[in-house]
Design brief:
There is one protein chain. With 604 residues, the chain is an alpha+beta fold. The chain contains 13 helices and 33 strands. The strands form eight sheets. The protein has an eight-stranded parallel beta sheet. A seven-stranded antiparallel beta sheet has the order 1-26-27-28-33-30-31. α7 runs antiparallel to α8, α7 packs antiparallel against α11 and α11 runs parallel beside α12. It is globular, with a radius of gyration of 25 Å.
Length: 604
């Protein structure tokens, strides 16, 4: 971690406490759809004089009066918009003062329209709510069929021979994408009992299609499983077995570029038919900036990753919209995958740029839903992904910006570039809550929350302290959205970025496992799968100061509190009786935590 000068920091406080209690969220307790009508409910003080819901009907502002209900809540009904999201906010009068409530919270004046509550016709699939994902980099997870292992010198990639390495070795940065360890699909199948014991019920696999590199993001054939991972028939059988065990599967979709070995480019002259490199009929599938064969636009300038041109209708049809497109092929029988993760999502587009990006991604979403109405589509975004999360484009994203990066800073004191940062609980809360305030509730529930991935440092290397690693896992499972464990996180696997973040899973060296961490993940997965508030409930931060966080997940009357301290002792008063979801004990009065530690409490 790079050292920087530090200066004393004054601890700030974040609290959701407002001058009045006004509460609304996107759960079915507060939002009920009846055909083309929305019934909206609001919790408000007894002395509320009047209130309205402000919305927009065909672009015009509309105000619908709130009516007091027998259960003490207030209700208004308004029509849903058919061609766009229905967005709304509450305006109320209490003791002669006006207050507004939106996803930005209670304010004395109106907030940005972009922070309104939103309801979309194009919602993420409901099955994701109860899932715990597990990300697998296939070559490094488990070797189940040594007979299909790549052999050293089998071919050359970028003028160097590929190499097979022993499972116990560390990846060698000097070898780049040319070293293989032998993980395969059969190894995943052999691990189903392990995954089920951990509590995993959904998988995300890094690319598995034919490719000359170990990372496989330079696809050679989108319709063929790489022979060193298995076969198409074997993959179909694996998916069938996963589904029999109620485990969903999402594949990595590399739609921004192909590999240079792909027949459309054919830079290495593997195919007899001329590709773009030979001036063939697929030249316009890519974007050329000169007359020479190599003068094409590639992702990040890597010649092995020529960028696809979605300004060409044939590219759009072959990759996305056609009956035999890549998107459809793996969603259809006999494979029936459950979703796509879109690699480099915000840069996909026309003519070597991101032109038409939203249009292309909408077509991916629409096509996937035509084949499987419950398909889950997420994007890879390292930055702000709000524009892609408004319904009908991406159901969720790898939530680096809204979860991973703030969590690294709060628990590890490090940002995404490896620089030292000082982020207290209040800063963490503001960052997370501000981001969520722009995202429709149902898309919040589909955010893909990871502590690290194949593209980052391992979380264990960011947080060497075991107890803080447990806190990271707790934050991950409490955060709104879907938790995804990167293989090996559950046993404390370390790695200072690629390639060490892609170490092999040490199956035969259990003495290296942090079994207490594994048990913690297992317990969190159990709790999440039994508590609807953690699956589908709203998310709010009730208090954040210094080392202390108090997070609430709520589904109607059901409430779960996560009390967290990263260091300093925490004392927090409770109203009524609460159950400790980890120990099963009943807790009342003041809860005291010494740090770093956490407790999950359920009201009742």
């Amino acid at each position: 971690m790079t050292e920087t000068a530090s200066r004393p920091q004054k601890s700030s406080t974040f609290t959701s406490g407002a001058p009045v209690h006004l509460y609304h969220d996107g759960t079915s307790h507060f939002v009920q759809q009846d055909g083309d009508l929305l019934h909206l409910f609001l919790e408000a003080p007894e002395d509320m004089e009047e209130g309205q819901v402000m919305s927009f009907h065909h672009g015009d502002a509309r105000f619908d009066d709130l009516q007091k209900q027998d259960d003490g809540r207030w209700k208004a009904t308004l029509p849903m918009q058919k061609h766009r999201n229905t967005q709304y906010r509450f305006k109320v009068q209490i003791s002669g003062r006006t207050y507004w409530l939106s996803q930005a919270g209670v304010q004395p004046g109106p907030t940005l329209f972009a922070q309104d509550f939103k309801v979309s016709h194009n919602r993420p699939p409901g099955w994701v709510h109860e899932r715990v994902f597990y990300q697998i980099f296939p070559d490094r997870f488990r070797n189940g069929d040594p007979s299909i292992n790549l052999k050293s010198g089998e071919y050359t990639y970028e003028d160097r021979a590929v190499v097979h390495r022993k499972w116990y070795m560390d990846p060698n940065a000097a070898m780049g994408a040319n070293e293989y360890f032998g993980g395969d699909l059969e190894g995943i199948r052999h691990s189903l009992d392990y995954l089920k014991d951990l509590g995993v019920n959904a998988l995300y696999l890094n690319p598995i299609f034919q490719s000359p590199s170990v990372h496989a993001y330079d696809t050679q054939d989108h319709f063929k499983i790489d022979e060193h991972f298995g076969t198409n028939e074997g993959f179909a059988a694996l998916v069938d077995e996963l589904h029999q065990n109620d485990i969903k599967i999402m594949l990595d979709g590399v739609f921004n570029h192909t590999g240079s070995w792909h027949k459309w480019m054919n830079r290495e002259r593997i195919y007899s038919e001329p590709g773009a490199f030979q001036g063939g009929p697929t030249r316009d599938y890519y974007t050329y900036v000169g007359d020479q064969p190599e003068e094409y636009i590639a992702w990040f300038g890597f010649a092995t990753l020529p960028k696809l041109n979605y300004g060409n209708p044939e590219v759009l049809e072959n990759m996305i919209t056609g009956e035999d497109s890549v998107v459809r092929f793996w969603l259809k029988a006999p494979y029936h995958i459950d979703g796509w993760r879109l690699d480099a999502a915000p840069v996909i587009g026309k003519h070597g740029t991101d032109e038409g990006n939203h249009e292309v991604l909408q077509k991916i979403w629409q096509t996937a839903r035509e084949e499987n109405p419950e398909a889950y589509i997420i994007g890879e975004h390292f930055g702000d992904a709000i524009p892609w999360l408004q319904g009908g484009e991406e159901d969720g994203v790898m939530n680096y910006y809204g979860f991973t990066i703030p969590t690294w800073a709060f628990l590890g004191g490090e940002d995404e570039s490896g620089k030292c940062v000082q982020l207290d609980a209040a800063d963490y809360a503001r960052s997370v809550m501000h981001y969520l305030s722009f995202i429709p509730f149902h898309n919040q529930l589909a955010l893909f929350n990871n502590l690290c991935s194949h593209d980052t440092k391992r979380f264990a290397s960011i947080c060497p302290d075991l107890e803080r690693r447990k806190l990271g896992a707790t934050l991950q499972f409490v955060h709104i959205g879907v938790p995804c464990i990167y293989y090996g996180d559950e046993i404390g696997l370390e790695g200072e970025g690629d390639p060490l973040s892609r170490r092999t899973m040490p199956w035969d060296w259990k003495e290296l496992w942090e079994t207490g961490l594994y048990d913690h993940y297992k317990q969190l997965a159990r709790i999440r799968k039994q508590e609807k508030a953690l699956q589908e409930g709203s998310y709010s931060v009730l208090h954040a100061q210094g080392d202390h966080l108090v997070i609430q997940r709520r589904f109607g009357p059901e409430r779960i509190l996560a009390l967290i301290t990263r260091g300093e002792p925490l004392a927090y008063p409770l109203e009524g009786a609460w159950q400790d979801l980890m120990s099963g004990q009943t807790m009342q009065g003041e809860v005291k935590l010494s740090g770093p530690s956490a407790v999950l409490l359920k009201q009742g």
